[in-house]
Amino acid sequence: MKWCRFDNGGVPIYGLVEGDQVIQVDGDPFNGHRETDVRLDLGQVKLLVPVVPPTLYAGGLNYPDHVVWAAEHAGTAPVWPKEPIVGTRATSGLIAHEENIVKPDDATEEFQYEGELVAVIGKTAKYLSREEALDCVLGYTIGNDVSERTWQRDDPNNWRAKDSDTFHPMGPFITTGIDPTDLEVKVRLNGDEKIRFNTGTMIWAVADYIQKITRYHTLQPGDTIWTGTEGATLNMYPGDTIEIEIQDIGILRNRVVSES
Amino acid sequence: MKWCRFDNGGVPIYGLVEGDQVIQVDGDPFNGHRETDVRLDLGQVKLLVPVVPPTLYAGGLNYPDHVVWAAEHAGTAPVWPKEPIVGTRATSGLIAHEENIVKPDDATEEFQYEGELVAVIGKTAKYLSREEALDCVLGYTIGNDVSERTWQRDDPNNWRAKDSDTFHPMGPFITTGIDPTDLEVKVRLNGDEKIRFNTGTMIWAVADYIQKITRYHTLQPGDTIWTGTEGATLNMYPGDTIEIEIQDIGILRNRVVSES
Prior knowledge:
The structure is a homodimer of 260-residue chains.
Chain A: E1 2-8, E2 11-18, E3 21-28, E4 32-41, E5 56-60, H1 64-74, E6 85-89, E7 94-95, E8 100-103, E9 111-112, E10 115-121, E11 137-144, E12 147-148, H2 149-152, E13 168-175, E14 184-189, E15 192-198, H3 206-216, E16 224-226, E17 241-246, E18 250-258
Parallel strand pairs in A: 5-16, 7-13, 8-18
Antiparallel strand pairs in A: 1-2, 1-13, 2-3, 3-4, 5-6, 9-12, 10-11, 10-16, 11-13, 14-15, 14-17, 17-18
């Protein structure tokens, strides 16, 4: 099942994507829904972020080559995370598929993408074991964790480096019933594939994150867990288009524009 | 004007506090309201957190004695923040006045309170100057930024140390029309006053935080900015009651209980 959320005359509503059609629903993926008779052309609807999470959790340093790259970039030795690294982010930075990433005027050249699998929580959850962890997941979407690398050095909370307005493209769809440990991710900059990786190479899996988070936090319906990216990341410039494609979910595409 | 938010048969609604009465309103402080004829006894309503913020911003190391204390505690030299320190937190840790702070079983003795003034944003805001910064503020409430100090050392994101379930008591009221640069704060542990300070001694004022945040983030109605605490903080144990009183707002009171 593939969920989308779209604008209906100023009101966000949910739909189910089938091919190039959207079946409008009453309700939502979290509290129950009923299909209506309304069918829309997917190309004609204005997609919104598929959910506005009560809390946006973000993992970090979660793929082997990215750990090595980040250490080289910082001039330090790579440090393998002994447990999942968790942070939270503002939701004000969320933008939808096809909306523009705005590069702040004072950002340096090191303004980069990070293509990530995002787990969307479907129900309230606390104290989950690793084995039952995925039971609370509704499905998966795609995130681009835009990062200004020079700001990141002095910003332990990443509130500016990773969290400014438009720094969190997410979407286009939430796909249910797929295995988060075996999905192919491709990242393209202006149409050129820059990296391809499988989510099975995550250092800590979605289930590990959920087990750890729910030891201390109650996860809520709509919360999202961003799971980190792989490899070296590259600079983006105004005019560039960045696409992140994840198998069985879709393509998240955004253009970079200048703030001024 | 003093706002409260309370439970009305499972539905959160807003009211205006006048003495020991609550005037129930239609609407809310952000989108307009109308007083109803319903008057309730303040002592009889179940208060909720006065707002669930889209984003909970948290300042840090923002009072001189606390900067010195935190450095002594960490065995380092005090470092004066050259600009406001900003982070964001999960909202799942919010609890209301008179609800219980749950001390996790694996928390150490260093489980502490932080009494803080909290600014509540009233309208969408971006690119505010310091002079116009306070125009976007609806009013002020009280926060207790509960902190596990040993976890804090290894937790740059503070997601566990300051962000676990029940670690963010907030309330009881939002007071409008008061000056955030001259409010007396008193913190009492089991009825004994442990510290008294004035918000005028903040290193970075509410206006500084708003100016800095809105350079990069769009503030949204209901967002909260927690502004840090003063002085040394003390351990709390199950059975303790912690009260934070701020002039013209009220008293935020919570009891500590054990997780198990």
